[in-house]
TrEMBL record:
Protein name stated in the entry: Ketosteroid isomerase
Sequence ranges assigned to domain SnoaL-like in this UniProt record: 44-146
Domain of life: Bacteria
One Pfam match: SnoaL_2
UniProt-listed SUPFAM superfamilies: NTF2-like
Length: 167
């Protein structure tokens, strides 16, 4: 083999080794981020279930939260304050016993965590509120920056029709 061909082969081998090392490092970082993101959301849901916190504590100020479907609250909320004031506070004011979540499954893929869960509580009219949710949460630095929420809009709307309690 000529000296030039040997140099080219050596360069190719080095390039492949560098690419494999970079890909391995990236994959390791991605797996670590996925694990951390999943743990962050799991911890927030555990706090919600025990009454000591909630996933809403993780919302970035400029979060974009989209409620999909045809519920009375379906649209995109473009800040933490808008989402909390227009959805969460009015929802909670209609409850005599707040929601308690039970996670069915939780998945992580890079910066996205998907939580499939049931939640139940008691409305002010004494009726049991139960719903099943799927939340797709995009995290950045441990904060939720984007969310898409799916749930049974019929059950939600039935609760939403109740009067809002005075604060």
């Amino acid at each position: 083999m000529s000296r030039r061909k040997t140099s080219v082969a050596t360069l190719r081998g080095t390039a492949v080794a560098v690419a494999v090392s970079a890909a391995t490092a990236f994959a390791g970082t991605a797996i670590a981020d996925e694990t951390a993101n999943k743990a962050t959301i799991q911890t927030a849901f555990d706090a919600w279930a025990s009454g000591t916190g909630s996933p809403y504590d993780l919302l970035a100020d400029n979060v974009e939260w989209t409620i999909t479907g045809n519920s009375a609250a379906s649209r995109t909320y473009r800040s933490r304050d808008a989402f909390i004031n227009e959805v969460i506070k009015p929802f909670n004011s209609r409850m005599s016993v707040g929601l308690k979540p039970t996670i069915r499954d939780i998945y992580a893929d890079r910066d996205t965590v998907i939580v499939f869960f049931d939640a139940a509580g008691t409305a002010k009219d004494g009726q049991r509120y139960k719903n099943t949710y799927a939340w797709f949460l995009d995290l950045d630095g441990g904060r939720i920056v984007k969310a898409s929420a799916f749930f049974d809009s019929i059950a939600f709307n039935k609760l939403w029709e109740l009067p809002v309690a005075a604060e």
